[in-house]
Amino acid sequence: MDRYQFEDLISAYIENELSLMKRKELESYLAEHPLDEKLIKHVSFNMKTLKDSPKIIAKKNFNKRLLERIKSENPQLVLKSKSEKTLFGFSFFHASILVGLFAALFILSLEITDSIPSFQNNANNKFVEDKNILDKKDINKQLDDDDIIKTNFTDFKNDTTKKEKRDFSKNIKYVND
Length: 177
Hints:
- The protein has 177 residues and is mainly alpha-helical.
- Among the domains are: 3-52, no CATH class; 86-155, no CATH class.
- The protein has helices spanning 3-14, 20-32, 35-52, 62-73, 92-113, 139-142, 145-150.
């Protein structure tokens, strides 16, 4: 048993709440450290004194009068009242800074993920006219012959119409670092 374990068990030892094994272990510690027996006597005396001390009953308006006296003697020590206007526990100044930071974080996250087309680089993007492109009858004529040749219409790997489950275990590759 070390000093910290001993100090944790003092009150339980005094109140006779220890198991027989722990009690014997503590008593063997006391045999090795006779100065710690004085500590037990002091703690026991303090516990008895506190138990025997009379209970003091305060008047109903004691806290209110005490706070008024503190305010009058030293106004710098006065705690801010809970009735002071706050927003979720923050002052309005700190809440506005926090909201500004959240807005900046939101805009940056949208910029990073390219979710807003108006923030993107418009030089490389082609935007569709307001008309529905599917309404045009000559949509097939607009495709270049090269695009048709490059397109693989038999690509079943990216087929999203199939509802069956696929086994992707063959696609997993292990890498040694």
